[in-house]
TrEMBL record:
Cofactor(s) required, per the database record: pyridoxal 5'-phosphate
GO molecular function terms attached to this record: ligase activity; pyridoxal phosphate binding; transferase activity
Name of the coding gene: glyA1
Keyword list, A-Z: Ligase, Transferase
CDD domains per UniProt: KBL_like
Pfam families: Aminotran_1_2
Name under which the protein is recorded: 2-amino-3-ketobutyrate CoA ligase
Record SUPFAM superfamilies: PLP-dependent transferases (SSF53383)
Residue ranges of domain Aminotransferase class I/classII large in the record: 64-405
Organism: Chryseobacterium hagamense
């Protein structure tokens, strides 16, 4: 089988029929070389840490650019109080946990973190369990809770970690945010499966749009199912007090399982699950990832604890983020660029054609603006886009410079849809 490098996407390399592992890796290596010689890079080195201004590049070819590629929505990775708390944690406990939670890797900061994140959602400590990443929080929870007699009913746009968690159970997907399709699956699954768990995101990671949580919750109850919501892009950003999309829906005390990450709004790394204490204890003591994998460094847990406090102590960060989102989105709209249905800090500029999207990404970078060109399989084949994440640390001049770059690129490539 021959792959046409001029049109290939990552997905084409997943399973090239008729070749062994080394041959497949060989073909892929040639593709990376081909892309490099055509000026595309898949991974840029950041020399400065998360910020709206980053220094990127290697081997003395570096430059400062405006960055829209991190999910450091409130700027917590650089917040002096978060850094101070994490450094104090390292001073006290050292750099690593060096053990899994059940055999010595559960430190007092992990205990404090469970209490803090549970309290953030109005729950008690036992109702929270933490993981080393948000990815694992999703995949491990689904893996341990669902068996072959059960079914996960998932919105097709959920995160890859949810798909991974469903490998060992039955899985049905419904078209994105389509309530009729969801109801049909719920109705037809009612007798057939033991546990029916509907899994959705609060904010969807590629379009930045939100789920109709209230309507989905009603359907889930009507058909005796359970609801799990991953709100990694909503927490800290949406809801009157920053508790995310579930707070907006008024259902913080009703959702069966809430999952999230400490790597975005909370500026560190780790994941969490909030649920009934019987479920969290089952996950805590049964999940393979809890039993066989080390906990986050205690210093990191100390930093997260402070970041959680800051959501309430410094609401001006959220206000600044929203000022930036509105200003930038209005600017893109004025240029006729298509931003879809976003209502969060994830802002896509929809282009459609994957190669044009990559060209736009490269032209933006040449103009000093770092974004993520996103294409199949992360989104549908003809729905490629430039994905940007807004933060509270962007300044108006960064946004104006980026809007000017889009205006110039549009003159050359005619990417405006309106
Ligand atoms: N869920 C969603 C919707 C995400 O976008 C991400 C991060 N890309 C994750 C889960 C995983 O979070 P983490 O980076 O903490 O593993």
């Amino acid at each position: 089988m021959k792959i046409d490098f001029t049109t290939a996407t990552f997905k084409d390399f997943e399973n090239i029929e008729g070749f062994d592992m080394m041959q497949r890796a060989d073909i892929y290596y040639d593709f990376l070389e081909y892309m490099k010689t055509n000026g595309h890079r898949y991974r840029l080195q950041n020399n400065t840490g998360c910020s709206s201004i980053m220094n990127i590049g290697e081997n003395n070819v570096t430059k400062d650019i405006i960055s829209f590629v991190t999910s450091d929505y409130l700027g917590m990775t650089q917040h002096p109080k978060v850094k101070e708390a994490a450094m104090r944690g390292i001073e006290e406990f050292g750099t690593g946990s060096a053990a899994t939670p059940l055999i010595g890797g559960y430190y007092s900061y992990h205990n404090e973190l469970e209490t803090k994140i549970a309290g953030f959602f109005g729950r008690r400590q036992e109702e929270a369990v933490t993981f080393t990443t948000g990815y694992t929080a999703n995949s491990a929870t689904l893996q341990i809770l669902l068996q072959k007699e059960d079914i996960a009913i998932i919105d097709m746009a959920v995160h890859a970690s949810v798909y991974e968690g469903c490998i060992l159970t039955n899985r049905k997907t419904f078209p994105h945010n389509n309530l009729d399709a969801l109801e049909h699956i719920l109705k037809t699954s009612e007798q057939q499966f033991r546990t029916k768990l509907v899994v959705i995101d609060g904010v969807y990671s590629q379009d930045g749009d939100t789920a109709p949580i209230e309507e989905i919750y009603k359907l889930v109850k009507k058909y005796n199912a359970y609801l799990m919501i991953d709100d990694v892009h909503g927490v800290g950003i949406l809801g009157q007090t920053g508790r995310g999309t579930i707070e907006e829906a008024g259902l913080l005390d009703k959702i069966d399982i809430i999952t999230g990450t400490f790597s975005k709004t909370f500026g560190n790394i780790g994941g969490y699950v909030i649920a009934d204490k019987k479920l969290t204890n089952f996950i805590r003591f049964q999940s393979r990832q809890q039993i066989f994998s080390a906990t986050t460094p205690p210093g990191t847990a100390a930093g997260i604890v402070k970041a959680i406090d800051l959501i309430d102590e410094e609401p001006h960060l959220r206000t600044k983020l929203w000022e930036n989102i509105h200003y930038f989105k209005n600017g893109l709209d004025a240029l006729g660029l298509e931003t879809g249905t976003t209502r969060s800090a994830v802002i896509p500029v929809k282009i459609g054609e994957p190669r044009t999207t990559m060209d736009v990404g490269k032209m933006l970078l040449d103009r000093g603006v770092y974004t993520n060109p996103i294409m199949y399989p992360a989104v549908a084949r003809k729905d490629a886009r430039i994905r940007m994440s807004m933060t509270a640390t962007h300044e108006k001049e960064h946004l104006d410079k980026t809007l000017n770059a889009f205006e110039d690129i549009n003159k050359k490539l005619h990417i405006a849809k309106k």
